[in-house]
Specification:
The protein has 665 residues and is mostly helical. It is built from 23 helices and five strands.
Length: 665
């Protein structure tokens, strides 16, 4: 089999699986919730992988890894670590549970719908949907560009063919299976990404003589135009720590405001799943993002094969991979395809649902039923993919291949506009729609100005990446500042959401614990001692009854695993007297005389003795037993040894008084 046949065979299998899953998941797309959110029933593994694969696309693997690895050397790995800790772990901790609960309470399926209902503002909802539609286009178009060099290297076919094939296949499974198909395919694509990045890193380092040899060679690289410090590209923070910090902030915190990322929290099925998903997503990000930037950090070792001025940063990673084996190149192509298709599917789904639910349904077809909404979303998936394909090909033909800049523009505008309003909208009742408008307008104006008059910006903010990071941080200040001096949102609406997060009628003033945390911790503090008292009581009771000729189970010598003690009396009368003695020794209702009765759920009469402070408490002294052979009493508990000992002795006294037992002289 030729090299080309091996590569094509792997691609055909990959594409067949993706399309097959889309057709299989068609049954989940009968309504809007199913098509957009998978019926809000997606588990932690699928959600975590959907989050991770949507996060990392060819833009990261080819564009960002090449650009920042070249600029910062091995220190670029910090961007991957930041993505894992800030973009994944902290995002799930801060946004996961609240996003799921509040969007469910507000019945919102998209980010604009959340803004519209949270702040009772139709214009705010429409503005958010327009921002999403406009600024996701350059992001989507940039996804294809990372494939051009890799496909050219692997197959020697025209870039336009690559773009069209990827777009068509992605469209097929998104249109057919909606979010559920996207999530399942993301899971498979995520596994491919993990395996692929590990294999590629191993192969590249091996070609350089191993990790230590590669790091030593990187330390010998110098670039006076960047820094005169020897070994700076192998240093801890690289030649430009502040620039690196801007990259970490934008690529990590930026995800908090991206609609296609936050939407993953809408669809997860439970709060327990949020916790599991957080761990899975963080590990995934650490491997994939950390691996990508780590790999890119060795890009300067190939500087004799790359002309950055002519080829751009997009040439760095493909050049590093050009010497790999046929199988590994096929794996890399599928890896980048997986990364790009997963992100593309999330973007087109977010855009089509936003345009349908938040724009067309709101302004053009207000009475649109669910089936028609799904049809419109499917149609808009086609439109959105077609627009992105045209833009990608035009960019390529015009030699506009600077992936990271395109992504920086879209991330900066979206994250800058939405991060602060969304975050404060989840956590602060005082957030106002005026505060949201301030964040929207500021970020959009700054990012558009950066495109057209970037030379007028301060040197630090001329980069779209730094400008985007600045917009995000500015929004965190603007939203509360404006909200403090503008009209507050609807009180009942905000309180309703707060009650959903804690307890109806109580809210965050008391929360879901009703002030019982002190008692809870006191119980944990006392538990070891109280348990020991109960076990000591059981051993004492077992030994006494053994000496009187009764069978005790477990025996007084046995190793204990719980506090329950069984005593087989063999007759009904001793059983009754034992229980009545326990009742007489109780701190509550000691005057009561227990009698057997037909308790529901039992096939015989039952006698119970329990004079407890807490009804039904098994840790307090109690005993019960069915009135049938072998006439066994189930005895347990005792908050203190001295009281429990008194209860046992009073039971023994009852047996002696009725001459059911005889004590030895």
């Amino acid at each position: 089999m030729t090299d080309l046949m091996i590569k094509l065979s792997l691609l055909i299998v990959f594409f067949a699986v993706m399309v097959g899953i889309g057709l299989y998941c068609r049954r989940h797309t009968t309504d809007v919730s199913g098509f957009v959110l998978g019926g809000r029933s997606v588990g932690p593994w699928l959600t975590a992988f959907a989050y991770g694969t949507s996060y990392f696309s060819a833009v990261v693997f080819v564009g960002y890894a090449g650009q920042f690895g070249w600029k910062y050397g091995i220190a670029a790995t910090w961007a991957g670590i930041g993505n894992a800790l800030l973009g994944s772990l902290l995002a799930w901790v801060v946004l996961g549970r609240r996003t799921r609960i509040m969007t469910q309470h507000l019945d919102s399926a998209t980010m604009p719908e959340f803004f519209g209902k949270r702040f009772s503002s139709r214009p705010l909802k429409l503005a958010a949907s327009v921002i999403i539609f406009i600024f996701l286009i350059p992001y989507t178009a940039s996804l294809y560009n990372g494939l051009s060099r890799l496909f050219g290297m692997a197959f020697d076919i025209d870039y336009s063919v690559c773009v069209v094939v990827m777009a068509v296949l992605t469209g097929v499974y998104v249109i057919a299976g909606g979010y559920m198909a996207t999530a399942i395919n993301d899971f498979i694509q995520g596994i491919i990404m993990i395996v692929g990045i590990c294999a590629v890193i191993g192969a590249v380092l091996s070609s350089q003589g191993g990790f230590l040899a590669a790091l030593d060679a990187l330390a010998q690289v110098s670039d006076p135009a960047v820094s005169g410090t020897p070994g700076v590209f192998a240093s801890f923070f690289g030649p430009d720590p502040m620039g690196l910090l801007g990259v970490v902030l934008l690529t990590s915190l930026g995800t908090w405001g991206l609609p296609q990322m936050v939407q993953k929290f809408y669809a997860i099925k439970s709060e327990t799943a949020v916790h599991k998903g957080m761990i899975i997503s963080t590990v995934f990000a650490l491997i994939v993002a950390g691996g990508c930037y780590f790999l890119g950090g060795f890009g300067r070792l190939y500087s004799d094969q790359i002309d950055i001025a002519v080829d751009g940063y997009d040439a760095v990673v493909p050049t590093m991979l050009s010497g790999l084996s046929t199988i590994l190149i096929a794996v890399v192509v599928i890896l980048v395809l997986s990364a790009s298709m997963s992100t593309l599917s999330s973007l087109v789904l977010a855009s089509s649902s936003t345009l349908t639910l938040d724009f067309l349904k709101e302004l053009v077809f207000p009475g649109m039923d669910e089936k028609r909404q799904v049809r419109w979303m499917r149609g808009l998936v086609v439109v959105f993919i077609a627009i992105s394909v045209v833009l990608a090909i035009v960019q390529y033909r015009s030699n506009v291949t600077f992936i990271a800049q395109l992504m920086g523009i879209s991330w900066g505008a979206l994250a800058g506009a939405f991060l602060a309003p969304f975050l404060y909208g989840l956590y602060w009742k005082g957030t106002t729609k005026a505060g949201c408008w301030a964040s929207f307008l500021f970020s959009v104006v700054v990012m558009l100005a950066n495109i057209f008059v970037g030379s007028a910006f301060p040197a630090l903010l001329r980069s779209p990446i730094n400008a985007g990071a600045f917009c995000m941080l500015a929004g965190l200040v603007l939203v509360p500042a404006v909200s403090l001096f503008t009209q507050k949102p609807d009180h009942d609406l905000v309180e309703g959401a707060a009650m959903r997060l804690t307890t109806p009628g109580i809210g965050k003033e008391c929360g879901s614990t009703f002030g019982a945390n002190r008692s809870l911790y006191q119980g944990l503090f006392l538990a070891p001692h109280t348990t020991a008292q109960a076990v000591k009581t059981a051993v004492f009771a077992a030994r006494i009854m053994e000496l009187l000729g009764y069978e005790a189970e477990p025996s007084s010598q046995a190793v204990r695993h719980d506090i329950i003690q069984m005593i087989h009396f063999g007759a009904p009368e001793p059983l009754k007297k034992f229980c009545r003695g326990i009742q007489m020794g109780a701190p509550v209702d000691s005057y009561v005389t227990p009698e057997p009765w037909a308790m529901p759920g039992y096939d015989s009469d039952v006698i119970m003795a329990a004079g407890a402070f807490v009804s039904g408490s098994s840790i307090e002294l109690s005993a019960d037993g069915p009135i049938k052979p072998p006439y066994t009493v189930y005895f347990q508990g005792g908050l203190t040894w001295y009281h429990a000992k008194l209860g046992i002795l009073m039971s023994l006294q009852k047996l002696v008084d009725k001459k059911l037992v005889t004590l030895p002289e």
